[in-house]
Amino acid sequence: MSRRLLSLLSALMVLLAASPALAEKSVPASKAMPFLETYLKLPAAERSRFTPAYYLHIGPQPLTAPVWLVQGGVRTPVPLNAQGRIERLPTLAQLADGKLAIGVDGETKLSVRLFIEPMMAPAADLDARELAAAIAQAVAGERKAAGLLALVAPKFKDVGFVGVPSGEVEFADGRRAPLPLVKGVPTYNPTDLPNARRIRLPKVPDRLDIG
Asked: Looking at residue 1, what is its pLDDT?
């Protein structure tokens, strides 16, 4: 090996040694995703229509930095959508001792927003019966998981279509009616709108929010 090449390699090693380590914040997965363990312990058939959804934010803005699930030295990328939603939740085994490694400075303050959502993806045309089934399953899952605390837990009774200004419900006989607004969000309550068949929205909502 030539002296010139040795000099270049030595200089590169010195440069790498002097470079600061990549900034990273580490959080236990169970802390970052509260109540996920309780949800995952429900029988699979009792949680097939709804899911807890975790949105990572820095201040008011969705997190855009890379995220990994770290367990036993293995780093698995965790995908986020444009709203900062964790798109692939860990398993019970991963949740037990896994950590989330987030590509931000360790002093960065992160927030986690938890919502309960139907398992179906947001769309401009939705099956009202599927949404009603998701709400009913979320109610049953909440009661079973919370036990006595279900008496004071939030009551799931409807689904809101966040990010759209309005919407319509189409009934089995073809009639249509505007969706009521709850705090400015078009909302479908199966009890108030029986025999609903489809939900029609002017665009794809940002998310579907049960309760």
From this structure: 46
